[in-house]
Amino acid sequence: MSTLRSLASVLLLALAGALAAQEYPARPVHIIVPSTPGGGYDVIGRLLAERFTADLGQPCIVENRAGGGTLVGTQAVATAAPDGYMLLVGGLANMAFNPGLHRNLPYDPVRDFAPVAMVGAFTYALVGRKDLPAANLRQLIDAARADPGKLSIATSGVGTGQHVSALMLKRFAHVDLLEVAYKGAQPAYLDLLAGRVDLFFDNTTTARPFIIDGRVKPYVTSGSLRDALLPDVPTAAEAGLPELVLDSWIGLFAPAKTPPKAIERLRAATLKALADAEVRRRLDATGWRIISMSPEETRAFVRGEAEKWPALLRQAGIRPE
């Protein structure tokens, strides 16, 4: 009898363990944002966390892990346990730019991550202090060429879209701009509004309020098409720099080898969030273009971007360091 009870106990424990392994999530989920609060990565991370908390039945916690551009936070997820409890907001900067900017990148964007889902895309806007004399991009380039190194441009973390946009502007416009590095967009705006720095190539969503109230002057946006948030501002291509085209994108990633069931659950939660009318309204209002791709298309897209951008950066004269 005792043998039967012991066997029954073993079977019950085994069954409980198997059920527990299938139940995802069973504890809080962490979303790592590899940048400072307030930017595009942070906006998406917090929006998903808000929806995941309600949908997954577990707290979803956003952690901003800035450093090394986007390296610190991205590397943390690359080496995390592949169990679905630590996720990454990944995008053009950390999944495509970094292989072309860092000679010894401590992670592989394709090998070390499993894409969960694409979320959205956005552009960057080149803005200047409001009293900058140049009225358009042509005049700005002429002024920079006439006095090399005099005009300054803020950058927000090595390898970010703000940083690469600035490098592309310098390269393709053949101008010498003084780069001033900041730890995030907020301190860059403090100096831009105070007139201590001349230019900033920032996420169009976060640049727009400063443009609308006249605190900064817009010059161009970086997309292949005009941004719906700034329909009167030309693209860089329209303004005479056809090489400067940068459509940024953001998605959700998990460590490679994360169980397929966890990936499927997270993907379903992401798609549910993006289908919500209020979420779509919020994203549309802030300039996001929602991206819809199948799992196969998502994997192929990320692989293609990771291969394409290092080559484009080399063409722009940017070498890994």
Number of structurally distinct domains = 2
Class from secondary-structure proportions? alpha/beta
Number of strands: 11
**CATH third-tier fold name of the largest domain:** D-Maltodextrin-Binding Protein, domain 2
Task: Give descriptors for this structure.
321 residues; alpha/beta; D-Maltodextrin-Binding Protein, domain 2; 6-stranded mixed beta sheet; 5-stranded mixed beta sheet; 11 helices; 45% helix; 20% strand; globular; disordered N terminus
What would you say this structure looks like, in words?
Residues about 1-20 have low confidence and may be disordered. Helix 2 packs across helix 9 (about 260-275) and helix 4 runs parallel beside helix 11 (about 295-315). With about 325 residues, this protein is of the alpha/beta class. The strands form 2 sheets. Strands 2-1-3-10-4-11 form a 6-stranded mixed sheet, sandwiched between helices. Strands 7-6-8-5-9 form a 5-stranded mixed sheet. The radius of gyration is 22 Å and the shape is globular. It has 2 domains: about 25-120 and about 250-315, 3-Layer(aba) Sandwich (D-Maltodextrin-Binding Protein, domain 2); about 125-220, Periplasmic binding protein-like II (D-Maltodextrin-Binding Protein, domain 2). The N and C termini lie far apart (about 70 Å). Strand 1 (about 30-35), helix 2 (about 40-55) and strand 2 (about 60-65) form a beta-alpha-beta unit. The chain has 11 helices and 11 strands.
